[in-house]
Protein backbone atom coordinates (compact mmCIF):
# COMPACT_ATOMS: atom_id res chain seq x y z
CA UNK A 1 0.00 0.00 0.00
CA UNK A 2 1.43 3.27 -1.10
CA UNK A 3 0.14 5.99 1.20
CA UNK A 4 1.94 8.81 -0.52
CA UNK A 5 0.69 7.83 -3.94
CA UNK A 6 -2.92 7.61 -2.75
CA UNK A 7 -2.76 11.01 -1.13
CA UNK A 8 -0.63 13.04 -3.52
CA UNK A 9 -1.70 11.85 -6.96
CA UNK A 10 -5.24 13.22 -6.80
CA UNK A 11 -3.84 16.68 -6.14
CA UNK A 12 -2.28 17.09 -9.57
CA UNK A 13 -2.10 14.13 -11.88
CA UNK A 14 -5.55 12.62 -11.40
CA UNK A 15 -7.21 15.68 -9.92
CA UNK A 16 -10.95 14.97 -9.76
CA UNK A 17 -11.94 18.44 -10.96
CA UNK A 18 -9.43 19.50 -13.57
CA UNK A 19 -8.50 16.12 -15.04
CA UNK A 20 -11.48 13.83 -14.49
CA UNK A 21 -14.06 16.68 -14.62
CA UNK A 22 -16.19 15.45 -11.73
CA UNK A 23 -18.04 17.44 -9.12
CA UNK A 24 -18.07 20.67 -11.05
CA UNK A 25 -21.53 21.79 -10.00
CA UNK A 26 -20.91 22.73 -6.41
CA UNK A 27 -17.36 23.71 -7.20
CA UNK A 28 -18.44 26.82 -9.04
CA UNK A 29 -21.26 28.21 -7.02
CA UNK A 30 -19.48 28.44 -3.67
CA UNK A 31 -16.26 30.08 -4.83
CA UNK A 32 -17.18 33.77 -4.84
CA UNK A 33 -15.53 34.07 -1.40
CA UNK A 34 -12.68 32.12 0.15
CA UNK A 35 -14.40 31.22 3.42
CA UNK A 36 -17.38 29.26 2.06
CA UNK A 37 -14.99 27.56 -0.37
CA UNK A 38 -12.80 26.34 2.51
CA UNK A 39 -15.82 25.08 4.45
CA UNK A 40 -17.21 23.36 1.36
CA UNK A 41 -13.85 21.74 0.61
CA UNK A 42 -13.56 20.45 4.16
CA UNK A 43 -17.12 19.09 4.12
CA UNK A 44 -16.61 17.27 0.82
CA UNK A 45 -13.29 15.83 2.05
CA UNK A 46 -14.92 14.47 5.19
CA UNK A 47 -17.85 12.98 3.27
CA UNK A 48 -15.66 11.40 0.59
CA UNK A 49 -13.25 9.89 3.10
CA UNK A 50 -15.89 8.44 5.41
CA UNK A 51 -18.29 7.25 2.72
CA UNK A 52 -15.35 5.48 1.06
CA UNK A 53 -14.48 3.88 4.41
CA UNK A 54 -18.05 2.76 5.16
CA UNK A 55 -18.78 1.42 1.68
CA UNK A 56 -15.46 -0.38 1.67
CA UNK A 57 -16.32 -2.06 4.97
CA UNK A 58 -19.75 -3.04 3.63
CA UNK A 59 -18.60 -3.97 0.14
CA UNK A 60 -18.86 -7.74 0.54
CA UNK A 61 -22.42 -7.52 1.89
CA UNK A 62 -23.96 -5.18 -0.70
CA UNK A 63 -25.81 -6.90 -3.58
CA UNK A 64 -24.54 -5.24 -6.73
CA UNK A 65 -28.04 -4.62 -8.13
CA UNK A 66 -29.02 -2.20 -5.40
CA UNK A 67 -25.60 -0.75 -4.66
CA UNK A 68 -26.44 2.74 -5.98
CA UNK A 69 -29.28 3.12 -3.49
CA UNK A 70 -27.12 1.84 -0.62
CA UNK A 71 -24.39 4.29 -1.58
CA UNK A 72 -26.84 7.18 -1.79
CA UNK A 73 -28.22 6.38 1.65
CA UNK A 74 -24.76 6.24 3.23
CA UNK A 75 -23.72 9.50 1.58
CA UNK A 76 -27.00 11.23 2.42
CA UNK A 77 -26.65 10.28 6.09
CA UNK A 78 -23.13 11.71 6.24
CA UNK A 79 -24.29 14.89 4.50
CA UNK A 80 -27.12 15.33 7.00
CA UNK A 81 -24.56 15.08 9.81
CA UNK A 82 -22.37 17.73 8.15
CA UNK A 83 -25.37 19.96 7.52
CA UNK A 84 -26.53 19.80 11.14
CA UNK A 85 -22.96 20.41 12.32
CA UNK A 86 -22.60 23.51 10.13
CA UNK A 87 -25.98 24.85 11.22
CA UNK A 88 -24.93 24.48 14.86
CA UNK A 89 -21.37 25.84 14.69
CA UNK A 90 -21.09 28.02 11.57
CA UNK A 91 -24.57 29.30 10.91
CA UNK A 92 -23.68 32.22 8.63
CA UNK A 93 -21.54 30.04 6.36
CA UNK A 94 -24.24 27.39 6.16
CA UNK A 95 -26.68 30.11 5.05
CA UNK A 96 -24.25 31.18 2.31
CA UNK A 97 -23.82 27.61 1.11
CA UNK A 98 -27.63 27.11 1.16
CA UNK A 99 -28.62 24.18 -1.05
CA UNK A 100 -25.07 23.34 -2.06
CA UNK A 101 -24.46 21.43 1.17
CA UNK A 102 -27.32 19.13 0.22
CA UNK A 103 -25.90 18.80 -3.26
CA UNK A 104 -22.78 17.12 -1.88
CA UNK A 105 -24.96 13.98 -2.06
CA UNK A 106 -25.04 14.09 -5.83
CA UNK A 107 -21.45 15.25 -6.16
CA UNK A 108 -20.02 12.94 -8.79
CA UNK A 109 -16.62 12.76 -7.06
CA UNK A 110 -18.11 10.83 -4.19
CA UNK A 111 -20.13 8.41 -6.31
CA UNK A 112 -17.22 8.08 -8.69
CA UNK A 113 -14.74 7.15 -5.95
CA UNK A 114 -17.21 4.74 -4.37
CA UNK A 115 -17.77 2.96 -7.68
CA UNK A 116 -14.21 3.06 -8.92
CA UNK A 117 -12.27 2.50 -5.72
CA UNK A 118 -14.13 1.65 -2.52
CA UNK A 119 -15.99 -1.32 -4.00
CA UNK A 120 -12.75 -3.09 -4.83
CA UNK A 121 -10.25 -2.01 -2.13
CA UNK A 122 -9.72 -2.39 1.60
CA UNK A 123 -11.01 0.12 4.17
CA UNK A 124 -7.74 1.91 4.98
CA UNK A 125 -6.74 2.37 1.36
CA UNK A 126 -10.24 3.58 0.51
CA UNK A 127 -10.18 6.07 3.35
CA UNK A 128 -6.87 7.51 2.13
CA UNK A 129 -8.10 7.59 -1.45
CA UNK A 130 -11.21 9.48 -0.35
CA UNK A 131 -9.08 11.88 1.65
CA UNK A 132 -6.75 12.50 -1.30
CA UNK A 133 -9.57 13.13 -3.74
CA UNK A 134 -11.35 15.40 -1.30
CA UNK A 135 -8.16 17.40 -0.90
CA UNK A 136 -7.68 17.57 -4.66
CA UNK A 137 -11.18 18.99 -4.96
CA UNK A 138 -10.56 21.48 -2.14
CA UNK A 139 -7.33 22.61 -3.79
CA UNK A 140 -9.11 23.64 -6.98
CA UNK A 141 -11.89 25.24 -4.96
CA UNK A 142 -9.41 27.31 -2.99
CA UNK A 143 -7.44 28.40 -6.06
CA UNK A 144 -10.59 29.59 -7.82
CA UNK A 145 -11.98 31.29 -4.71
CA UNK A 146 -8.63 32.99 -4.05
CA UNK A 147 -8.61 34.73 -7.42
CA UNK A 148 -12.31 35.53 -7.37
CA UNK A 149 -12.23 37.13 -3.93
CA UNK A 150 -8.94 38.94 -4.47
CA UNK A 151 -9.86 40.46 -7.82
CA UNK A 152 -13.59 40.74 -7.19
CA UNK A 153 -13.74 42.33 -3.76
CA UNK A 154 -10.10 43.09 -2.93
CA UNK A 155 -10.27 40.99 0.23
CA UNK A 156 -9.16 37.56 1.42
CA UNK A 157 -11.24 35.74 4.06
CA UNK A 158 -12.94 39.07 4.65
CA UNK A 159 -9.75 41.05 5.36
CA UNK A 160 -8.80 43.93 3.09
CA UNK A 161 -5.72 42.91 1.11
CA UNK A 162 -5.45 45.49 -1.62
CA UNK A 163 -4.34 48.71 0.12
CA UNK A 164 -6.83 51.56 0.20
CA UNK A 165 -4.32 53.89 -1.44
CA UNK A 166 -4.77 51.83 -4.61
CA UNK A 167 -8.46 52.70 -4.66
CA UNK A 168 -7.63 56.39 -4.18
CA UNK A 169 -5.34 56.15 -7.18
CA UNK A 170 -8.28 54.93 -9.27
CA UNK A 171 -8.13 51.12 -8.87
CA UNK A 172 -11.53 49.45 -9.10
CA UNK A 173 -12.69 46.02 -8.05
CA UNK A 174 -13.59 43.80 -10.99
CA UNK A 175 -17.29 43.22 -10.37
CA UNK A 176 -17.40 40.56 -13.08
CA UNK A 177 -15.27 38.25 -10.91
CA UNK A 178 -18.01 37.86 -8.32
CA UNK A 179 -20.57 36.84 -10.94
CA UNK A 180 -21.03 33.12 -11.61
CA UNK A 181 -19.71 32.87 -15.21
CA UNK A 182 -16.20 33.94 -14.24
CA UNK A 183 -15.83 30.81 -12.10
CA UNK A 184 -16.17 28.72 -15.26
CA UNK A 185 -13.60 30.77 -17.10
CA UNK A 186 -11.11 30.57 -14.20
CA UNK A 187 -11.53 26.79 -13.98
CA UNK A 188 -10.96 26.61 -17.74
CA UNK A 189 -7.68 28.47 -17.31
CA UNK A 190 -6.62 26.33 -14.31
CA UNK A 191 -7.26 23.24 -16.43
CA UNK A 192 -5.27 24.68 -19.29
CA UNK A 193 -2.24 25.32 -17.08
CA UNK A 194 -2.51 21.93 -15.37
CA UNK A 195 -2.90 20.04 -18.64
CA UNK A 196 0.00 21.71 -20.39
CA UNK A 197 2.25 21.09 -17.36
CA UNK A 198 1.41 17.39 -17.07
CA UNK A 199 1.81 16.92 -20.82
CA UNK A 200 5.23 18.52 -21.03
CA UNK A 201 6.63 16.15 -18.39
CA UNK B 1 -46.64 35.47 -9.53
CA UNK B 2 -48.57 33.97 -12.41
CA UNK B 3 -47.64 30.52 -13.68
CA UNK B 4 -46.46 31.81 -17.04
CA UNK B 5 -44.12 34.32 -15.40
CA UNK B 6 -42.76 31.61 -13.15
CA UNK B 7 -42.16 29.43 -16.21
CA UNK B 8 -40.27 32.14 -18.11
CA UNK B 9 -38.27 33.00 -15.02
CA UNK B 10 -37.16 29.42 -14.43
CA UNK B 11 -36.18 28.91 -18.08
CA UNK B 12 -34.19 32.08 -18.64
CA UNK B 13 -33.44 34.06 -15.48
CA UNK B 14 -32.83 31.19 -13.05
CA UNK B 15 -31.37 28.88 -15.67
CA UNK B 16 -30.08 25.73 -13.97
CA UNK B 17 -26.76 25.73 -15.82
CA UNK B 18 -25.93 29.39 -16.26
CA UNK B 19 -27.16 30.77 -12.96
CA UNK B 20 -26.69 27.83 -10.58
CA UNK B 21 -24.28 25.41 -12.31
CA UNK B 22 -26.44 22.41 -11.55
CA UNK B 23 -26.04 19.25 -13.58
CA UNK B 24 -22.67 20.35 -14.92
CA UNK B 25 -21.15 16.87 -14.86
CA UNK B 26 -23.54 15.32 -17.34
CA UNK B 27 -23.74 18.63 -19.18
CA UNK B 28 -20.03 18.38 -19.98
CA UNK B 29 -19.86 14.62 -20.41
CA UNK B 30 -22.80 14.11 -22.77
CA UNK B 31 -22.71 17.30 -24.84
CA UNK B 32 -20.63 15.92 -27.70
CA UNK B 33 -23.46 15.66 -30.25
CA UNK B 34 -26.77 17.49 -30.49
CA UNK B 35 -28.82 14.31 -30.81
CA UNK B 36 -27.73 12.60 -27.59
CA UNK B 37 -27.78 15.83 -25.63
CA UNK B 38 -31.36 16.52 -26.73
CA UNK B 39 -32.26 13.01 -25.51
CA UNK B 40 -30.68 13.60 -22.13
CA UNK B 41 -32.29 17.03 -21.88
CA UNK B 42 -35.72 15.54 -22.53
CA UNK B 43 -35.14 12.83 -19.93
CA UNK B 44 -34.10 15.42 -17.34
CA UNK B 45 -37.16 17.57 -18.08
CA UNK B 46 -39.40 14.52 -17.81
CA UNK B 47 -37.96 13.45 -14.45
CA UNK B 48 -38.10 17.00 -13.08
CA UNK B 49 -41.78 17.41 -13.98
CA UNK B 50 -42.55 14.26 -11.99
CA UNK B 51 -40.17 14.55 -9.02
CA UNK B 52 -40.59 18.22 -8.09
CA UNK B 53 -44.38 18.03 -7.44
CA UNK B 54 -43.97 14.72 -5.57
CA UNK B 55 -41.24 16.17 -3.39
CA UNK B 56 -43.39 19.25 -2.90
CA UNK B 57 -46.16 17.10 -1.43
CA UNK B 58 -43.67 15.16 0.70
CA UNK B 59 -42.26 18.41 2.00
CA UNK B 60 -45.67 19.92 2.71
CA UNK B 61 -47.28 16.93 4.42
CA UNK B 62 -44.30 15.20 6.04
CA UNK B 63 -41.20 17.30 6.46
CA UNK B 64 -41.79 20.99 7.15
CA UNK B 65 -42.28 22.10 10.77
CA UNK B 66 -45.75 21.22 11.99
CA UNK B 67 -46.58 19.38 8.77
CA UNK B 68 -47.72 16.25 10.56
CA UNK B 69 -50.67 18.06 12.17
CA UNK B 70 -53.03 16.41 9.66
CA UNK B 71 -52.41 13.00 11.26
CA UNK B 72 -53.09 14.02 14.82
CA UNK B 73 -52.86 17.35 16.64
CA UNK B 74 -50.30 16.10 19.13
CA UNK B 75 -47.76 15.71 16.32
CA UNK B 76 -48.09 19.36 15.30
CA UNK B 77 -44.87 20.30 17.07
CA UNK B 78 -42.70 17.80 15.20
CA UNK B 79 -40.13 19.11 12.77
CA UNK B 80 -38.67 16.48 10.45
CA UNK B 81 -36.89 18.84 8.10
CA UNK B 82 -33.50 17.30 8.94
CA UNK B 83 -34.64 14.24 6.98
CA UNK B 84 -35.03 16.29 3.79
CA UNK B 85 -31.92 15.12 1.95
CA UNK B 86 -32.28 11.43 2.58
CA UNK B 87 -36.00 11.40 1.74
CA UNK B 88 -35.64 13.53 -1.40
CA UNK B 89 -32.81 11.45 -2.82
CA UNK B 90 -34.66 8.21 -2.02
CA UNK B 91 -37.80 9.53 -3.77
CA UNK B 92 -35.77 10.61 -6.79
CA UNK B 93 -33.96 7.28 -7.08
CA UNK B 94 -37.25 5.38 -6.71
CA UNK B 95 -39.10 7.53 -9.26
CA UNK B 96 -36.31 7.21 -11.79
CA UNK B 97 -36.42 3.43 -11.37
CA UNK B 98 -40.22 3.32 -11.74
CA UNK B 99 -40.18 5.63 -14.76
CA UNK B 100 -37.60 3.44 -16.43
CA UNK B 101 -39.79 0.38 -15.97
CA UNK B 102 -42.97 2.17 -17.12
CA UNK B 103 -41.33 3.59 -20.21
CA UNK B 104 -39.78 0.25 -21.05
CA UNK B 105 -43.16 -1.50 -20.85
CA UNK B 106 -45.35 0.96 -22.72
CA UNK B 107 -43.30 2.89 -25.26
CA UNK B 108 -40.29 1.09 -26.63
CA UNK B 109 -39.41 3.94 -29.02
CA UNK B 110 -39.15 6.42 -26.16
CA UNK B 111 -37.21 3.84 -24.17
CA UNK B 112 -34.62 3.43 -26.87
CA UNK B 113 -34.29 7.23 -27.03
CA UNK B 114 -34.10 7.93 -23.28
CA UNK B 115 -33.31 4.52 -21.83
CA UNK B 116 -29.57 4.74 -21.44
CA UNK B 117 -29.78 8.16 -19.79
CA UNK B 118 -32.34 7.37 -17.13
CA UNK B 119 -30.04 5.60 -14.62
CA UNK B 120 -27.60 8.51 -14.92
CA UNK B 121 -30.25 10.97 -13.91
CA UNK B 122 -30.67 9.77 -10.31
CA UNK B 123 -27.30 11.30 -9.48
CA UNK B 124 -27.70 14.43 -11.61
CA UNK B 125 -27.42 17.43 -9.31
CA UNK B 126 -30.00 19.38 -11.32
CA UNK B 127 -32.74 17.04 -10.14
CA UNK B 128 -31.95 17.17 -6.43
CA UNK B 129 -31.03 20.86 -6.69
CA UNK B 130 -34.39 21.71 -8.24
CA UNK B 131 -36.23 19.96 -5.41
CA UNK B 132 -34.12 21.79 -2.82
CA UNK B 133 -34.76 25.16 -4.48
CA UNK B 134 -38.46 24.31 -4.52
CA UNK B 135 -38.28 23.74 -0.77
CA UNK B 136 -36.44 27.02 -0.24
CA UNK B 137 -38.91 29.11 -2.22
CA UNK B 138 -42.14 28.04 -0.50
CA UNK B 139 -44.42 27.65 -3.51
CA UNK B 140 -48.09 27.96 -2.63
CA UNK B 141 -49.44 24.91 -4.50
CA UNK B 142 -48.49 21.81 -6.49
CA UNK B 143 -49.13 23.53 -9.82
CA UNK B 144 -46.42 26.08 -9.19
CA UNK B 145 -43.97 23.35 -8.21
CA UNK B 146 -44.74 21.42 -11.42
CA UNK B 147 -44.31 24.53 -13.59
CA UNK B 148 -41.02 25.28 -11.84
CA UNK B 149 -39.84 21.74 -12.59
CA UNK B 150 -40.89 22.02 -16.24
CA UNK B 151 -39.23 25.41 -16.68
CA UNK B 152 -35.98 24.33 -15.06
CA UNK B 153 -35.90 21.19 -17.15
CA UNK B 154 -36.46 23.09 -20.39
CA UNK B 155 -33.80 25.62 -19.39
CA UNK B 156 -31.35 22.77 -18.88
CA UNK B 157 -32.36 21.25 -22.26
CA UNK B 158 -31.79 24.61 -23.95
CA UNK B 159 -28.34 24.95 -22.40
CA UNK B 160 -27.12 21.45 -23.24
CA UNK B 161 -28.37 21.58 -26.84
CA UNK B 162 -26.72 24.98 -27.31
CA UNK B 163 -23.32 23.82 -26.02
CA UNK B 164 -23.56 20.59 -28.04
CA UNK B 165 -24.17 22.57 -31.23
CA UNK B 166 -21.14 24.76 -30.48
CA UNK B 167 -18.95 21.76 -29.65
CA UNK B 168 -19.87 20.08 -32.95
CA UNK B 169 -18.50 23.11 -34.78
CA UNK B 170 -15.50 23.38 -32.46
CA UNK B 171 -14.08 20.16 -33.84
CA UNK B 172 -12.94 22.09 -36.91
CA UNK B 173 -11.23 24.88 -34.99
CA UNK B 174 -7.64 25.14 -33.92
CA UNK B 175 -7.45 25.23 -30.13
CA UNK B 176 -4.29 25.41 -27.97
CA UNK B 177 -3.36 21.90 -26.92
CA UNK B 178 -3.95 22.02 -23.16
CA UNK B 179 -7.28 23.71 -23.66
CA UNK B 180 -8.79 21.16 -26.01
CA UNK B 181 -11.89 19.22 -25.02
CA UNK B 182 -13.32 20.14 -21.67
CA UNK B 183 -11.22 23.25 -21.02
CA UNK B 184 -12.62 25.19 -23.94
CA UNK B 185 -16.16 24.02 -23.12
CA UNK B 186 -15.79 25.62 -19.71
CA UNK B 187 -14.74 28.93 -21.14
CA UNK B 188 -17.55 28.86 -23.71
CA UNK B 189 -20.09 28.03 -21.00
CA UNK B 190 -18.76 30.99 -19.04
CA UNK B 191 -19.27 33.27 -22.02
CA UNK B 192 -22.78 31.89 -22.57
CA UNK B 193 -23.45 32.52 -18.89
CA UNK B 194 -22.44 36.14 -19.31
CA UNK B 195 -24.86 36.39 -22.25
CA UNK B 196 -27.64 34.85 -20.16
CA UNK B 197 -27.02 37.40 -17.43
CA UNK B 198 -28.75 39.89 -19.69
CA UNK B 199 -32.00 38.31 -18.49
CA UNK B 200 -31.15 38.87 -14.85
CA UNK B 201 -32.41 42.40 -14.55
CA UNK B 202 -35.83 41.53 -15.95
CA UNK B 203 -38.56 41.74 -13.33
CA UNK B 204 -41.45 39.43 -14.08
How would you describe what is shown here?
The complex is a heterodimer of chains A (201) and B (204). Chain A has helices spanning 3-8, 24-29, 34-58, 67-89, 91-97, 99-102, 108-116, 123-153, 164-168, 180-200, and strands at 155-156, 159-160. Chain A has 201 residues and is mainly α. In chain A, a hairpin with a 2-residue loop joins strand 1 and strand 2. With 204 residues, chain B is mostly helical. Chain B has one domain. In chain B, helix 1 (3-13) packs parallel to helix 8, helix 3 (34-63) crosses helix 4 (84-106) and helix 4 crosses helix 7. Chains A and B meet through helix 2, helix 4 and helix 10 of A and helix 2, helix 4, helix 7 and helix 9 of B.
Radius of gyration of chain B using CA atoms only: 19 Å
- Overall geometry of chain B comes to globular
Structure classification of chain A: mainly alpha
Report the β-strand fraction of chain A as a percent range. Answer: under 5%
Would you report the number of β strands of chain A? Answer: 2
List unreliable stretches of 5+ residues of chain B: none
Number of domains of chain A: 1
* Total number of helices of chain A: 10
Total beta strand runs of chain B: 0
CA-based shape of chain A: globular
Average pLDDT level of chain B? 81
Chain pair sharing the greatest interface = A-B, 46 and 46 residues
Amino acid sequence: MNVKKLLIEPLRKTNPVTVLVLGICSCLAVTAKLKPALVMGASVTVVTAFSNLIISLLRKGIPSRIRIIVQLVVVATLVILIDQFLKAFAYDVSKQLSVYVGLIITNCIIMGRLEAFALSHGPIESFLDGLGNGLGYSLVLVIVAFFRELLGSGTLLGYQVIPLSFYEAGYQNNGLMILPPMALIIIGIVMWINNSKTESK
Amino acid sequence: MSLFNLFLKSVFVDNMIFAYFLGMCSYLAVSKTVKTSAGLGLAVTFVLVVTVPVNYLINKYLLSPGALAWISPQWATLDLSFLTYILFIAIIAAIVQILEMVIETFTSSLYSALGIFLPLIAVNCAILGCSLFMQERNFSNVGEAAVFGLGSGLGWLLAIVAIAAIREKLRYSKIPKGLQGVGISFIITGLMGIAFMAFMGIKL
